Amino acid sequence: MSSELRQRILNVESLPSPPALVAELLDLTSREDVRISEIASLIERDPALSAKLLKLCNSAAFGVRHEISSLDRAMVMLGIRQVKSFALGFLVLNAKEMQESDCFDFSHFWKRASVTAVSARALAKYAAPNLGGEAFACGLMLDIGRILLQHLVPEVYRTILSKQEESRRKLYEVEREVLELDHMEAGRTLLEHWGLPSIICETVGVHHCPQTYEGDAVGQDFLEIVAAAGEIAALFCDAQKSESLDRVLQICSGYFRMAEEQAHEMLKQIGDDARETAWLFELKGADALDYDRIRSDVEKELASATDAGA
Ligand SMILES: [Fe+2]
């Protein structure tokens, strides 16, 4: 039964078609002689996307002094590569076809995706500064396989989610047990089918198991950035904050060689930027994305553990 489901999910015929502008944007930006005005007029065909890009440019993360009100100027400021990455991230996750479900908490999903995206962008400064835009986009799309699975097999995915909640095992382990595939493989298959850059497809395909990655050093750095961003998203969005904070601080001091104070500063900035990005997506409950609040939750968790042990 699960092999049958696996076949059905991975069958190209059953995969949703890419959002309208994705293929055109990829095609246009692959041309060396592309002009900024051509990309701007393509993006302008999607008013919601244009508004988001302008909001993003005017957000504190980019520290602009004067309001940017045209896409041409936004592109000069951010550069074609960054605009392409942001636009792809927004377009892919907005694929309407996959958004109809009553068993999936999209608001929570987007909140997590926002934190992953801004965390990946922040960490890229330490390990791969010229891949910040790609890291942001990849962070947004990291768990797109979860949306795909719930779209293709909603009843089975509902069972998977409740099984995972009961057993507290990792989601991808339960997915493999039930479907013989997980959301990493599902996400990679979809993004490859849609023609997204291979560094994004490959990273999505192994994000919970970075040790299985077989690509080059640039891909390895990129994967470490995005996998670490996933851990930071867990810190901001899931329960059991103290364990999660320990893990994040270890990653920051290990792979990214940050002093502890520097890591706390970065995490505080990530909280501020994530609230702003969540506002771009008009998400409710983004106030909880506050690092000071998380640190005080960790202190409470530790104090109650000490009381229980006393
Ligand atoms: Fe995931």
Classified in CATH, the superfamily of the largest domain is: Hypothetical protein af1432
Mean pLDDT: 87
N→C terminal distance: 51 Å
At the fold tier of CATH, the topology name of the largest domain is Hypothetical protein af1432
Unreliable segments of 5+ consecutive residues: none
The number of domains is 2
**In the CATH classification, which architecture of the largest domain applies?**
Orthogonal Bundle
- Counted beta strands: 0
Largest sheet: none
Helix fraction by DSSP (H/I, runs of at least 4): over 70%
Which cofactor or ligand species appear? Answer: fe (ii) ion
What does this entry look like structurally?
The protein is mainly alpha-helical and 310 residues long. It has two domains: 2-18 and 95-305, Hypothetical protein af1432 (Orthogonal Bundle), CATH 1.10.3210.10; 19-94, no CATH class. The protein is 71% helix and 0% strand. The chain is built from 17 helices and no strands. α3 (36-43) packs across α5 (71-78), α9 packs across α12 (183-193) and α14 runs antiparallel to α15. It is globular and about 70 Å long. The model has no long low-confidence stretch (mean pLDDT 87). Fe (ii) ion (FE2) binds next to loops.
